[in-house]
Write a structure and sequence with these properties.
The protein is an alpha+beta fold. Strands 1, 2, 3, 4, 5, 6 and 7 form a seven-stranded antiparallel beta sheet that branches. α2 runs antiparallel to α3. β3 and β4 form a beta hairpin. Helix content is 27%, strand content 35%.
Length: 179
Protein backbone atom coordinates (compact mmCIF):
# COMPACT_ATOMS: atom_id res chain seq x y z
CA UNK A 1 0.00 0.00 0.00
CA UNK A 2 1.42 3.39 -0.99
CA UNK A 3 1.61 5.96 1.80
CA UNK A 4 -0.16 9.23 1.05
CA UNK A 5 2.24 12.17 1.20
CA UNK A 6 1.63 15.88 1.56
CA UNK A 7 3.42 19.21 2.14
CA UNK A 8 4.28 19.44 5.86
CA UNK A 9 6.18 21.82 8.11
CA UNK A 10 7.50 20.99 11.58
CA UNK A 11 7.25 24.08 13.79
CA UNK A 12 8.31 25.13 17.25
CA UNK A 13 5.59 27.23 18.85
CA UNK A 14 6.32 30.28 20.99
CA UNK A 15 4.67 31.01 24.32
CA UNK A 16 2.16 33.91 24.25
CA UNK A 17 4.54 36.49 25.76
CA UNK A 18 7.23 35.73 23.17
CA UNK A 19 4.68 35.70 20.33
CA UNK A 20 3.49 39.15 21.45
CA UNK A 21 7.06 40.50 21.44
CA UNK A 22 7.58 39.12 17.92
CA UNK A 23 4.30 40.66 16.72
CA UNK A 24 5.57 44.09 17.80
CA UNK A 25 8.38 43.79 15.24
CA UNK A 26 5.98 42.43 12.62
CA UNK A 27 3.77 45.51 13.06
CA UNK A 28 6.69 47.71 11.97
CA UNK A 29 6.12 46.53 8.38
CA UNK A 30 2.85 48.53 8.33
CA UNK A 31 4.95 51.58 7.45
CA UNK A 32 5.51 49.93 4.05
CA UNK A 33 1.78 49.57 3.18
CA UNK A 34 1.97 45.83 2.67
CA UNK A 35 -1.15 43.70 2.28
CA UNK A 36 -2.26 42.04 5.52
CA UNK A 37 -1.32 38.38 5.92
CA UNK A 38 -2.26 36.11 8.80
CA UNK A 39 0.81 35.98 11.03
CA UNK A 40 1.57 33.02 13.26
CA UNK A 41 5.01 33.51 14.83
CA UNK A 42 6.97 30.25 14.99
CA UNK A 43 10.36 28.72 14.30
CA UNK A 44 10.44 26.17 11.47
CA UNK A 45 12.58 23.08 12.11
CA UNK A 46 11.78 21.38 8.84
CA UNK A 47 9.79 21.69 5.64
CA UNK A 48 9.02 18.40 3.94
CA UNK A 49 7.30 18.97 0.56
CA UNK A 50 6.42 15.28 0.25
CA UNK A 51 6.03 13.48 3.56
CA UNK A 52 3.79 11.10 5.46
CA UNK A 53 1.72 12.59 8.28
CA UNK A 54 1.89 9.39 10.35
CA UNK A 55 5.70 9.23 10.24
CA UNK A 56 6.16 12.92 11.05
CA UNK A 57 3.66 12.76 13.93
CA UNK A 58 5.51 9.80 15.44
CA UNK A 59 8.81 11.68 15.17
CA UNK A 60 7.62 14.97 16.63
CA UNK A 61 5.79 13.21 19.46
CA UNK A 62 9.09 11.54 20.36
CA UNK A 63 10.90 14.90 20.27
CA UNK A 64 8.22 16.47 22.50
CA UNK A 65 8.63 13.71 25.08
CA UNK A 66 12.41 14.09 25.43
CA UNK A 67 12.54 17.90 25.63
CA UNK A 68 11.23 20.47 28.04
CA UNK A 69 10.36 24.01 26.99
CA UNK A 70 13.39 25.80 25.55
CA UNK A 71 14.53 29.30 26.50
CA UNK A 72 15.96 31.11 23.48
CA UNK A 73 17.60 34.49 22.95
CA UNK A 74 16.50 36.57 20.01
CA UNK A 75 19.77 38.18 19.01
CA UNK A 76 18.96 40.23 15.94
CA UNK A 77 17.11 41.01 12.75
CA UNK A 78 18.55 39.62 9.52
CA UNK A 79 17.80 39.80 5.83
CA UNK A 80 18.14 36.15 4.81
CA UNK A 81 18.66 35.30 1.15
CA UNK A 82 17.61 38.85 0.25
CA UNK A 83 13.96 37.77 0.39
CA UNK A 84 13.23 37.19 4.09
CA UNK A 85 13.25 39.60 7.04
CA UNK A 86 13.59 37.48 10.17
CA UNK A 87 14.38 37.57 13.87
CA UNK A 88 17.30 35.23 14.49
CA UNK A 89 18.01 33.26 17.65
CA UNK A 90 21.33 32.46 19.28
CA UNK A 91 22.74 28.96 18.87
CA UNK A 92 21.24 26.61 21.44
CA UNK A 93 22.33 23.02 21.99
CA UNK A 94 18.79 21.71 22.68
CA UNK A 95 17.48 23.38 19.55
CA UNK A 96 20.32 21.83 17.53
CA UNK A 97 19.58 18.36 18.94
CA UNK A 98 15.87 18.74 18.16
CA UNK A 99 16.72 19.73 14.58
CA UNK A 100 19.14 16.81 14.16
CA UNK A 101 16.70 14.33 15.72
CA UNK A 102 13.92 15.44 13.37
CA UNK A 103 16.01 15.11 10.25
CA UNK A 104 17.78 11.89 11.34
CA UNK A 105 14.46 10.24 12.29
CA UNK A 106 12.50 10.87 9.13
CA UNK A 107 13.09 9.39 5.68
CA UNK A 108 11.72 12.44 3.86
CA UNK A 109 13.78 15.03 2.00
CA UNK A 110 13.57 18.53 3.48
CA UNK A 111 13.56 21.64 1.33
CA UNK A 112 16.86 23.44 0.67
CA UNK A 113 16.28 25.97 3.51
CA UNK A 114 15.74 23.39 6.26
CA UNK A 115 17.82 20.45 5.02
CA UNK A 116 20.94 19.56 7.04
CA UNK A 117 22.63 18.69 3.73
CA UNK A 118 22.38 22.23 2.33
CA UNK A 119 23.93 24.02 5.32
CA UNK A 120 21.44 26.88 4.81
CA UNK A 121 19.32 26.37 7.92
CA UNK A 122 19.25 29.42 10.21
CA UNK A 123 17.00 29.23 13.31
CA UNK A 124 14.67 32.22 12.96
CA UNK A 125 11.16 33.58 13.17
CA UNK A 126 10.09 35.01 9.81
CA UNK A 127 8.61 38.50 9.73
CA UNK A 128 8.18 39.12 6.00
CA UNK A 129 8.97 37.21 2.81
CA UNK A 130 8.97 38.42 -0.79
CA UNK A 131 10.85 37.25 -3.85
CA UNK A 132 9.67 40.24 -5.88
CA UNK A 133 10.20 43.16 -3.53
CA UNK A 134 13.48 44.72 -2.35
CA UNK A 135 13.25 44.28 1.42
CA UNK A 136 16.41 46.23 2.30
CA UNK A 137 14.60 49.37 3.46
CA UNK A 138 12.16 47.37 5.61
CA UNK A 139 15.02 45.33 7.08
CA UNK A 140 16.99 48.49 7.98
CA UNK A 141 13.88 50.08 9.52
CA UNK A 142 13.06 47.05 11.70
CA UNK A 143 16.74 46.58 12.61
CA UNK A 144 16.89 50.13 14.04
CA UNK A 145 14.03 49.28 16.41
CA UNK A 146 15.35 45.88 17.47
CA UNK A 147 16.36 45.22 21.06
CA UNK A 148 17.51 41.70 21.98
CA UNK A 149 15.02 39.74 24.07
CA UNK A 150 14.46 36.33 25.61
CA UNK A 151 11.74 33.94 24.58
CA UNK A 152 10.41 30.46 25.08
CA UNK A 153 9.58 27.57 22.73
CA UNK A 154 6.74 25.60 24.30
CA UNK A 155 5.46 23.06 21.75
CA UNK A 156 6.30 21.24 18.55
CA UNK A 157 3.65 21.22 15.84
CA UNK A 158 2.92 19.64 12.50
CA UNK A 159 1.51 22.07 9.96
CA UNK A 160 0.09 21.10 6.58
CA UNK A 161 0.10 23.39 3.53
CA UNK A 162 -2.64 22.71 0.97
CA UNK A 163 -1.41 25.21 -1.61
CA UNK A 164 -3.45 28.08 -0.16
CA UNK A 165 -3.37 27.93 3.63
CA UNK A 166 -1.52 26.37 6.54
CA UNK A 167 -3.31 24.22 9.10
CA UNK A 168 -1.89 22.99 12.40
CA UNK A 169 -2.54 19.24 12.27
CA UNK A 170 -1.27 18.38 15.75
CA UNK A 171 0.48 20.11 18.64
CA UNK A 172 2.62 18.40 21.27
CA UNK A 173 3.75 20.38 24.35
CA UNK A 174 7.47 20.20 25.07
CA UNK A 175 7.63 18.34 28.37
CA UNK A 176 9.80 15.38 29.26
CA UNK A 177 7.61 12.37 29.96
CA UNK A 178 7.71 8.60 29.82
CA UNK A 179 4.40 7.80 28.07
Amino acid sequence: MKTKTSDYYVLLALDEDTATKVRVFKMLDKKFNLPYKVFYPHLTLGHFPSASKKTLLKTIKKISKINNEVDVSFKGVDLLNESLVALTVEKHSTLEVMYETLHDSTPFEADVWTSPNSGKFVPHVSLYFSQTMDLTEMFEYIKKSFVAFEGKLVAIELSQFDGKAYTIVKRFPLKKRFF
